[in-house]
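Let us practice reading a record.
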Amino acid sequence: MQSISRSTFTSIFVLFLVLTAGWTAAALPAAAHAALKASEVAVLAVRNDPDSMKIAEHYMRARNIPQENLILLEKSYPMVIPRAVWDSEIRPMLQTQLNALPGVRCLVCAWSVPLRIEAPPMDSPRRNEQLEFFRAQEKALARAMTETLRIMHRDIAPNQVSIIEAESVPDVGKLSMQEWLQILQKTLREVRERVAVLPEANRKAEMQKLDKLLQQTLGFTAMRNLLIARARQNMPVPKETFTKIMKVLASLEKHMVELHFRADSPKRDAEMLLVSRLMNGPYTAMLYARECCTRLEKNESQSAFDSELSLIFETGAYSLLGWVPNLYAYQYRVPAAVSIRKKADPELAVPEEMRDRLDEPASSVEEPIDALPLPPLSMLAEIETAWGREVVLGPPPEMDFGIDEEDETEIKTEANAAVETKKAPDRSDLDDEMVSLDMTAPKLETESTSEMEETEFQVPPPLRKVLLVARLEGPSVETVLKLIDDSIAAEKKGLEGTVYLDARKTRPARAGAGQMDKMDQSLNDLAIRLQRNTDLVVKLDTEEALFTRETCDSPCALYCGWYSVRNFQDIFTFSPGAVAYHVASFEAESLKTGPFWCPNLLEHGAAATLGPTFEPYLAAFPEPDEFYSLVLTGKFTMAECFYFTLPFHSWAMTYVGDPLYSPYRAKPRLKMEELPVKLQRFFGIQPQ
């Protein structure tokens, strides 16, 4: 499997989830957030393993966890188990035990509990059936898009030149997305130029032909975004058209979430492809089909044991290909970025710049949304739109990790202000191996009050029940016992020490989900946020080389960096209770031995870490700006911080440490209104 050190850190599965983002959760009832309690934690240990029992008993005693919350595996299992063992032995037993403990929200795996679940065998008839289906659909979608370009040249206000060009249209299946968009834009420009010289009587009919082709080509998400772009340019936007697009998207997004948790079947494959095409157009659907083929060829259906445990309450099966969204995470529970607010449908909301212009004349929009044709793939699965029988399905909202647009504007403003002050940093520092930020800038202006710090924050409950899972494991039993004791001691007095952030470059202006630049952006954003809002000592390294012990002479409280795969570096002296993770592939492949970062961070003094048990792809990691910002508020346990920011389940990641640990409970360092804007919206601090 390709290491993330050699990959582009992007995956069409990530793109697929990003583009299908926007699920409206406004209909869900709000619930006051309450931190995880000891009575809500159960411990999973191995009866015939004295080390497992010792750790379980020590932890339960230290955290006052009720004795009835101890769950025992009756025999030892290897660290990597076959999928059949999970399905037939362990999963049914755990479901029974947990159903008998209805108040439990979190399960702690104490030593010797399996770490990873293998993928099913490669030679299954179902896998071959899926490969055949997705290969055929990839080719069919490529042919359809190529033919669409030909039609634009040949059938819409054609002339001799365009008819000749229709015969030389390239195979869209061989084009990158950028190349496809460039050709589409060029073709549209030429079509409009041809239409513009037609007599007025013919112009409208030709534009209607073009509109219908575009509706099939772009998908509802792109059409929504185009209307928003028009509004931002002070152009008229038809209210009825926008409303219908939003209703269709809401139905499709709900359907997508349901499909993620539906048992594997040919009908499910067809519906996933259909919904992808309706939402994001045939090119994205083609990429999704292609990526499914790649994943099937690699047999990427393994998972971390803990990640599969999170879905233990799912009574039905779900697809093992790739991952499923973590519905506990904030990304999948915030309302859609765009919706309509009106008396007839109060659940919807609209961007501010559109509110005063929705009723303006729609003279430039010739074709109503009613004319939208259903793509040919509708023959494979019956899905009715919102003005027919409303379907109930769908996944998450935008997985746009890192700083938000609002945050980015604030950061740029404050960075400029810092340059103009006497305390502006010497720009030559950026060339040093390590940069310690010194941005003297005003505090964020918000509408919140100091009383907010004492309130309970409203968090929509997840659509489906998710079990929080943590692991108490490490190179030795003594290491694990120490991390438990260090966590409890640090929680009482407050974690002290330096924050070390090891990026590979200065902050990129823009980065997409799953791209390499996104991790550098997030690390830089966290450094800026802490310099702006706290008195913590923050050391940011923006060079490709890692920190060295010589440059890290003060105790480390928090660490995040990258990228040294299976190559732990002994850099820090950790403060008792320190939280640290390194973004790289395989770093939790073993938690007991080897060159991996997770076990070595624990052995060298960290009390909590997280990492992948196999190649995860970059988008699987919690973003450091979001994860550590939550930790620094002191209002959440480590398990909650991890699960609020973890994108996927049935995949690679595991958290190691005391799930009840809250390092800054005694001395919070960030206020809730200083969190990234997306998290503020999630907690109801800023309006959606």
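A brief commentary: The longest strand covers residues 574-582.
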